[in-house]
Amino acid sequence: MLKLQDDYARLMLRLVLGLLMLFHGQAKLVNGIEGIVGLVQGLSLPGFLAYLVFLGEVIAPIFLLVGVWTRVAAFLIAGNLVVAVLLVHTSEFFTRADSGAWALELQAFYFFTACAIMILGAGRYSVGGSHGRWN
To answer: Of 39, 75, 76, 133, which has the most beta carbons under 10 Å away?
Structure first.
């Protein structure tokens, strides 16, 4: 019975993280990523690197949702969040929001959920199944 519950928990983690990250990706597909291109170029990096955001916010969440290459997808999302914090939220690292919560709690939640999925894998309820190095 415990294995069945573990697989349901993995499915829930994958679906929640995948859907929530996909909203961020959808916003960038609709509104563009010119702001991110500017941030990247402001660091003297090539602007085309900004397009990697689509890996972490569109492709990886879709992979999580269906359960294919789950650990790789979770790694891409975690990396995407590290870059987002470094580019945009560094000044908020030691601050609190008006509600009293940590200013970066949402980013931390996404990051550590992705880390948990990297450790746990996809589980039985995935296209890739529970076996395999990358799932």
So the answer is: 76
